[in-house]
Design a protein that fits this description.
By secondary structure, the protein is α/β, with parallel strands linked by helices. It is built from 13 helices and eleven strands. It has helices at residues 55-70, 78-86, 96-117, 121-124, 147-159, 193-207, 223-234, 250-259, 272-281, 297-310, 323-334, 350-353, 382-388, and strands at 3-20, 25-38, 43-48, 131-137, 164-168, 212-216, 238-242, 264-266, 287-288, 341-345, 367-369. The strands form two sheets. Strands 4, 5, 6, 7, 8, 9, 10 and 11 form an eight-stranded mixed β-sheet that branches. A three-stranded antiparallel β-sheet has the order 1-2-3, sandwiched between helices. The protein is globular.
């Protein structure tokens, strides 16, 4: 079997109301899908993260830079192909956009191998579990969402069976050095530090003491602010504190991790095994959060998870994109011994809910069964693709 082509599909969905986290304004949800074609007729499917820029940037790297390196190659040589994609571009893209593009192709290669061997991907990768507990990823800022509306929203997830959930904090213009000041729509749905504490208090009161509640600051705070706020949020029994400071402030993240009792999680905005090596070895995090579509694909994430395991750290991937990102990370989590939770976005998004001909379902216990069909075990719903495709 040989690779004959690599193609992309760009899609976009406009949110009914813009979402926001600590620093990002999200009026739309975008995704770039990758298809690796072969002379056998099998087509592998993956997703390349397109956060922080237009679809075209990611597509250009995939089609103009990486595609020529893959034509005629055996997709089973996935490890060699990873390095064949990465090494020639080291002078201009050791991380960032290059790793995002490689992620989509790498996942598609693994999907191909699963299809060719008639093996579900999680089993091909080692098969540790066949179901994964999901956590409700929600609690974003929005113009119409009051603190009480936020609390009611989160209580609804508890009533639906979720035992774990996460909310956003950090959209605070008063904080010096908050990247929010330089981001689009920086005045949208903001909150003060005191208002954020009240938001956390109301959510904890609404969901009750048994729910595991995490908070995510998306790189918004300085170490001093993160420690101050972390100590106050700890009073409301926070399960983990995600991305408290700038991704590149390793010393600051380690300072926060050492100062607080609550585990520090991160950093979705880091990529590659070398970036995560620094986070792990410096004990700047307690929970490791790579993303299959962002951090270098399944091949690289398996190595990151193994490094985390060697340091007795759980690996709980970031997942916030389409249904393809969800199912790819689901297979990855199910293949590793230190993977426990699946981030499950709760916002309306047909690029997740209507993307496949098959369903990825959450049962009444908040648990997701891993598809048992070959490869990723999903096929694209072409009507959804055509409805949201960016031409």
């Amino acid at each position: 079997m040989r690779i004959t082509d690599v193609t992309t599909i760009a899609v976009s969905y406009e949110n009914r109301e813009a979402l926001a986290d600590a620093i990002h304004y999200m009026p739309v949800r975008n995704a770039v899908f990758v298809q690796v074609h072969t002379d056998s007729g099998l087509v592998g499917l993956g997703e390349a993260a397109s956060y922080g820029g237009p679809h075209s940037s990611t597509e250009t790297v995939i089609l103009d830079e990486l595609r020529p390196r893959l034509i005629g190659e055996d997709p089973f040589n996935v490890e060699r192909l990873w390095h064949k994609m990465h090494a020639p571009s080291h002078q201009h893209g050791r991380r960032g956009l290059l790793l995002m593009a490689i992620s989509g192709i790498d996942t598609a290669l693994w999907d191909l191998i699963g299809q060719a061997t008639k093996t579900p991907l999680y089993r091909l990768l080692g098969g540790y579990r066949d179901e994964v507990t999901a956590y409700a990823s929600a609690g974003f800022y929005a113009a119409s969402k009051s603190p009480q509306a936020l609390a009611d929203e989160m209580a609804g997830y508890a009533q639906a069976g979720f035992r774990y959930m996460k909310m956003k904090v950090g959209r605070n213009p008063e904080v010096w050095l908050n990247p929010l000041h330089d981001m689009p729509a920086s005045d949208y749905a903001t909150a003060s530090l005191e208002e954020d504490i009240e938001r956390v208090r109301l959510v904890r009161e609404a969901v009750g003491p048994k729910i595991k509640l995490a908070v995510d600051a998306n790189n918004a705070w300085t170490p001093a602010v993160a420690i101050q706020m972390g100590r106050r949020m700890q009073e409301h029994d926070i399960f983990w504190f995600e991305e408290p400071v700038n991704t590149d402030d390793l010393a600051g993240s380690a300072e926060v991790a050492h100062a607080l009792d609550v585990p520090i999680a991160g950093y979705e905005t880091e990529v590659g095994i070398f970036g995560f090596r620094e986070l792990i070895e410096r004990r700047a995090v307690d929970i490791v959060q790579p993303d299959v579509i962002w951090s270098g694909g399944i091949s690289e994430c398996k190595k990151i998870a193994a490094l985390a395991q060697a340091h007795h750290m759980p690996c709980i991937p970031h997942v916030f994109s389409s249904g393809l990102a969800l199912v790819a990370n689901l297979h990855f989590i199910a293949s590793i011994p230190n993977g426990f939770l699946l981030e499950f976005d709760r916002h309306t998004n047909p690029l997740r809910q209507a993307l496949f001909n098959e369903e990825i379902e959450i049962d009444s216990r908040g648990i997701v069964k891993v598809p048992d069909r070959p490869g990723l075990g999903v096929t694209l719903n072409q009507s959804t693709i055509e409805q949201y495709r960016v031409h």
